[in-house]
């Protein structure tokens, strides 16, 4: 019982991070019609900014994180305004190579600005009272982990409320379903795409700052998270915004189950194989309608 | 003089190209160009071979794959194991090391029957990631240290290829470009055969292709098999060229780089692919003239973005544009003269 509970706690914590990353990726896929492969690198860069501001100027992880998230929003805006807005002649695959160019640029800038050594980023919450973790039925979760889960949920609920209930959310959904028609109907698709990049940047920064205490701040810190987020998008299906979130939590849970109960070496690979098999039998993902092709 | 057919023209241009490339190590031997230049160009050749395979898959058949690096990696480990640990001759090891990834490639081809677009891209990325995880975690692949390989010896040790030796002729490069020549020849013949026409129809519309009696299962599997075959050949050559292979090379970014090669160079063009490989893998050759250190990486990314923004259909079109510009320029001159 306690093992299952422990796995569940761990999966919730990791799952929140994956879910944030998956949301950032699906937002851009739906509004900008490209897979943003630079998503992880942008998050990594903002984690470096956070560390820099925390160590040298603000001496607080909270303020540092705020600066990091703001810088991620700015980077997202710049990327959309300077590069992708002008790429309307480029086909889908070309746009993805543009994001590869971004990966290379960011990987080049990072050592120039911050050096080549990895940094340590502290947790947001170390101690509440005397202990650093909450224990329920012999299974423990760190207070920082609880905080991660909470922040993830708050941001996701806010985003879904925004998308489903507000006028701007309607604009996002309209752009996602058919961009040219939405533009003809007077939806400011440029602003929608731009804000999608900004929000995705912020989510990437949050994911990077939250994973940083366990992996250190280094250039490839977000690579595996990005791959998991991409697979979560496929698992959940591209048609909805909440599908990838469910996919992300599922992957986090099954990854822990597989590595604990089956094999720590083969478990993760086996999980990927099973996901691939699942996608083959249900190409539209967990949630999503079957795409009807017309001749 | 008899006029050459399209195929003869193409073969002639490949032969000339290969012959010119073969001059490079000779020039390096007499210190006219640097040895390092030839080393960088051998990377161009290796990634060019993998990109030609991806070009058949993506450019001609319209199926995307982001697992190229995984397959390259797999065959490079096998090549290292067969030649260094089992002492098999080079060509035998090449056959086996290429065959195993090809079988896995066929399985991925089965997946492509059900998926398309982003789904296929990320599913193949997943395959690449599984392989990457296995490279790191399983003892056979040497974990984080990787595996060592040797510069191959051909014909039972009669010909010993040399590579990283001071003041010696870089004969490994000759092997690389001969294989590149074979791959270019094969690519040309495949895309101008019945199979190639089936690929092109499939790219246009799968429904239409099916209606015309094209067996999607067969041709999709063939496309994946050819693409994986070329990628694995490139992987084998990579291991023998660098004498080493480890998990850090075979990541998503390498797959994206190979994709970048064909997007930058131009899809459905053999020389375009090689131009793309030159831009992506040999940019050091022209970027190192920039005096500020550390900035070359940034410029490299910017270059890729700029080329795609200005030449979305591939850099191979630049020759066409230059020709047009010249014609315009001279016509204006003639016009002024007449007036």
Structure report:
The complex is a heterodimer of chains A (295) and B (339). Chain A has 295 residues and is mostly helical. Chain A has one domain. In chain A, 72% of the residues lie in helices and 3% in strands. A two-stranded antiparallel ribbon of chain A has the order 1-2. In chain A, a hairpin with a 2-residue loop joins strand 1 and strand 2 (139-142). Chain A is globular, with a radius of gyration of 19 Å. Chain B has one domain (6-253): ABC transporter involved in vitamin B12 uptake, BtuC, CATH 1.10.3470. Chain B contains 14 helices and four strands. The chains are: A mainly alpha (295), B mainly alpha (339). Chains A and B meet through helix 4, helix 9 and helix 11 of A and helix 5, helix 10 and helix 13 of B.
Keywords, please?
heterodimer; A: 295 residues; mainly alpha; two-stranded antiparallel sheet; 11 helices; 3% strand; B: 339 residues; ABC transporter involved in vitamin B12 uptake, BtuC; two-stranded antiparallel ribbon; globular
Blueprint (SSEs and pairs):
The complex is a heterodimer of chains A (295) and B (339).
Chain A: H1 2-32, H2 39-58, H3 61-83, H4 92-114, E1 133-136, E2 139-142, H5 143-165, H6 167-177, H7 179-184, H8 189-215, H9 223-236, H10 243-261, H11 267-281
Antiparallel strand pairs in A: 1-2
Chain B: H1 6-29, H2 35-60, H3 68-85, H4 90-112, H5 118-137, E1 147-148, E2 153-154, E3 159-160, H6 171-191, H7 194-204, H8 206-211, H9 216-242, E4 244-245, H10 252-265, H11 270-281, H12 284-287, H13 296-310, H14 318-338
Antiparallel strand pairs in B: 1-4, 2-3
Helix pairs in contact in B: 1-6, 2-6, 2-9, 2-10, 2-11, 3-4, 3-5, 3-9, 4-9, 7-9, 10-11
């Amino acid at each position: 019982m306690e093992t299952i509970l422990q796995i569940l706690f761990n999966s919730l914590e990791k799952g929140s991070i994956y879910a944030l990353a998956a949301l950032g990726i699906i937002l851009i896929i739906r509004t900008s019609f490209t897979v943003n492969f630079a998503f992880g690198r942008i998050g990594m860069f903002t984690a470096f900014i956070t560390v820099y501001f925390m160590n040298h100027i603000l001496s607080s992880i909270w303020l540092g994180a705020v600066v990091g998230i703001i810088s991620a929003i700015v980077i997202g805006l710049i990327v959309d305004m300077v590069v992708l807005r002008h790429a309307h002649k480029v086909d889908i695959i070309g746009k993805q190579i543009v994001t590869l160019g971004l990966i290379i640029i960011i990987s080049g800038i990072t050592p120039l600005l911050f050096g080549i050594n990895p940094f340590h980023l502290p947790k947001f919450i170390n101690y509440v009272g005397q202990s650093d973790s909450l224990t329920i039925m012999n299974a423990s979760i760190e207070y920082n982990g609880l905080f991660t889960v909470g922040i993830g949920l708050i941001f996701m609920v806010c985003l879904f409320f925004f998308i489903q209930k507000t006028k701007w959310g309607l604009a996002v959904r309209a752009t996602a379903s058919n961009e040219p028609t939405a533009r003809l109907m007077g939806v400011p698709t440029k602003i929608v795409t731009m804000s999608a990049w900004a929000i995705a940047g912020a989510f990437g920064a949050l994911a990077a700052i939250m994973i940083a205490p366990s992996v250190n701040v280094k250039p490839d810190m977000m690579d595996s998270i990005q791959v998991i987020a991409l697979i979560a998008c496929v698992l959940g299906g591209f048609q909805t915004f909440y599908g990838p979130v469910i996919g992300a939590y599922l992957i986090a849970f099954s990854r822990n189950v597989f590595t604990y109960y089956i094999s720590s070496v083969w478990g993760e690979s086996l999980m990927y194989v099973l996901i691939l098999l699942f996608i083959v039998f249900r190409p539209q993902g967990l949630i999503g309608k079957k795409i009807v092709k017309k001749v | 003089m008899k006029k050459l057919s399209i195929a003869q023209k193409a073969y002639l241009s490949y032969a000339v190209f290969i012959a010119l490339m073969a001059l490079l190590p000779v020039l390096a031997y007499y210190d006219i160009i640097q040895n390092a230049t030839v080393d960088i160009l051998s990377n161009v050749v290796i990634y060019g071979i993998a990109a030609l395979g991806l070009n058949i898959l993506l450019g001609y058949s319209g199926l995307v794959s982001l697992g190229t690096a995984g397959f390259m990696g797999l065959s490079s480990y096998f090549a290292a194991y067969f030649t260094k640990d089992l002492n098999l001759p080079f060509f035998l090891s090449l056959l086996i090391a290429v065959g195993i990834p090809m079988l896995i490639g066929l399985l991925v081809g089965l997946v492509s029957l059900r998926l398309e677009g982003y789904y296929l891209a990320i599913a193949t990325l997943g395959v690449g990631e599984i392989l990457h995880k296995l490279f790191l975690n399983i003892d056979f692949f040497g974990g984080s240290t990787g595996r060592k390989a040797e510069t191959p010896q051909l014909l039972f040790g009669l010909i010993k290829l040399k590579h990283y030796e001071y003041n010696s002729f870089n004969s490994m490069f000759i092997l690389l470009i001969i294989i590149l020549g074979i791959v270019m020849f094969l690519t040309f013949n495949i895309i101008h055969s019945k199979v190639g026409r089936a690929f092109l129809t499939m790219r246009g519309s799968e429904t239409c292709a099916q209606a015309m009696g094209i067996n999607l299962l067969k041709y999709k599997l063939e496309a994946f098999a050819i693409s994986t075959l070329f990628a694995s050949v490139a992987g084998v050559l990579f291991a023998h060229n660098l004498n080493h292979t480890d998990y850090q090379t075979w990541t998503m970014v390498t797959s994206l780089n190979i994709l970048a090669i064909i997007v930058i160079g131009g899809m459905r063009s053999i020389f375009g692919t090689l131009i793309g490989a030159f831009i992506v893998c040999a940019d050091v050759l022209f970027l190192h003239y920039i005096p500020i250190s550390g900035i070359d990486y940034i410029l490299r990314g910017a270059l890729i973005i700029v080329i795609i923004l200005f030449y979305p259909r591939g850099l191979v079109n630049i020759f066409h544009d230059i020709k047009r510009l010249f014609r315009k320029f001279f016509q204006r001159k003639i016009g002024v003269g007449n007036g």
